[in-house]
Amino acid sequence: MSNFSSIPILDYALLSSPATRPAFIAQLRHALINVGFLYLAHAPVAPADVAAVAAYAPRLFALPQADKDALRMARSPHFFGYSRVGAELTKGRTDQREQFDFGTPCAAAVPTDARDVEEKPYLRLWGPAQWPAEDVLPGFRAVFERYLAQVEALSFEFVDLLAEALGLAPGALAQCFHDPAPDSARTEDGPARARLQHRAKVVKYPPRAPGEGDQGVGPHFDGSFLTFLLQASPHAGLQVQNLSGAWIDAPPIPGTFVVNIGKALETVTQGLARATSHRVLSPPPGSTPRYSVPFFQNIAQDVCVGDVRLEFPEEILKLKDERGALAATDSVNYAEYNELPSGLVNLIGRVKSHPDVAERHYPDLFKQFFPDGMPLQGSAY
Ligand SMILES: O=C(O)CCC(=O)C(=O)O
Ligand SMILES: [Fe+2]
C-alpha cells in the first residue's frame, strides 16, 4: 500500500495526549516515507490570522499596477517582491501565476571579510522583504508577519516530530539549522542556531483563457526542508505525483495546511523522507482566481546536507526498501544539495528563475548561468 491514491490527513490535536500521540507519529512516518505530502488539521496557527491572510490575498493583487511595480523583485538583492504573470517558466513552459515573495524578519548580512563576499555570495540572499506601504495596504504587514512567526514555530516543532517518526535521536536534525563551523557562534548551551530566514509567497493563479494552456505552475520539487502551504481559496488545482507517476488531486480542505517535503530534507535523510513532485493547474475559464500561500522552511546557509550523516534504525530503513522504486519524474532535482552549501543551492535556483534580478545584483553568477545574455524569461527547471 505504498503507492498512494490520496493524501493522508493528520490531526495535530492527537499530539496533546500521550494516548494518541503514537498514532500521530506512526501516520507521520507513513506520510514522510511513502507520500511526501500530508494535510495537517488543528495546527497551532490562530484561525483568525489564517483567515486574515486569506482575505488579504485578493486585495494584494488588486492594488494598482503602479503600487505592485513599485515592489518589483528586481529592486531586491534578496529576491523579494512582486513578479508579474509569465515571469517564470517551469519545464520550458510559462507559469500562469502572479506572485509576491516575502520572508521572515532578517537583517541584511554584514560581511566580516572580503573572502566571504567573494566565496559566499549567498550570504546576501537573505535580508529584509519589500512590503506594501502601510497606507497602500493597511495592516497587511503586521498580520502577515504574525502569521509567519506562527508557521515558523510550527515548522521547527515538525523538525522534532519528524526526527521522532524516523527513529532519530532527539535533536539529530538540529545540525541543519546551525552553522557548521563549531566555534562560529557558540553560546553557553552549545552552538547557537544560525541566522535563518524562511520565504513565503502569496500567489494568484488567474483562470485559464479559453484555448490556452493550464500550467499554473509546472511539475517541480520544492527546494525547502519542509513546505507549509495554505490553500487560500476553495479552488482545486494542486496535484501530487505518486510513486507510479499518476497525478493525485490535493484539493483544499478547510482548516488544514498542506505540508510537503522539500529536496533539502529528502537529501539529508538519504531519500528516506521523499520530496514529491507537484504542480498546479489553472482554474477553468470563467472561474475566479485561485490563491495560495506557501511557506518554505530553510536550513542554515553554510550547511552542505551531503556532509550530514544520520543513522537510521534498521526497521526504518526497511520501510524505505518496501516502498519500492520511484517512477521516473521529469521534475527538477536539486542534485546540487549533495555537494554545495544550501545557501548556494538556493541562490542558484533564484538566479535561474529571476535572471533580471540576478543581472542587477549578482552579475558574476548571471554571466556564469547566462553566458549569452538575458533569456526571454527565467527558468527554474
Ligand atoms: O500554489 C500552490 O498550491 C502550490 C505552489 C507551489 O507548489 C510552489 O510555489 O512551490
Ligand atoms: Fe511547490
From TrEMBL:
Natural source organism: Obba rivulosa
Protein name: Clavaminate synthase-like protein
Database matches in SUPFAM superfamilies: Clavaminate synthase-like (SSF51197)
Domain Fe2OG dioxygenase: 196-299
Keyword Iron: yes
InterPro entries: DIOX_N (IPR026992), IPNS-like_FE2OG_OXY (IPR044861), IPNS-like_sf (IPR027443), Oxoglu/Fe-dep_dioxygenase_dom (IPR005123)
Keyword line: Iron, Metal-binding, Oxidoreductase
GO molecular function, one term: metal ion binding
Claim: Oxidoreductase is one of the keywords in the record: yes
Family: Belongs to the iron/ascorbate-dependent oxidoreductase family.
PANTHER family: 2OG-FE(II) OXYGENASE FAMILY, PUTATIVE (AFU_ORTHOLOGUE AFUA_3G14880)-RELATED, OXIDOREDUCTASE, 2OG-FE II OXYGENASE FAMILY PROTEIN
Classification via PROSITE patterns: FE2OG_OXY (PS51471)
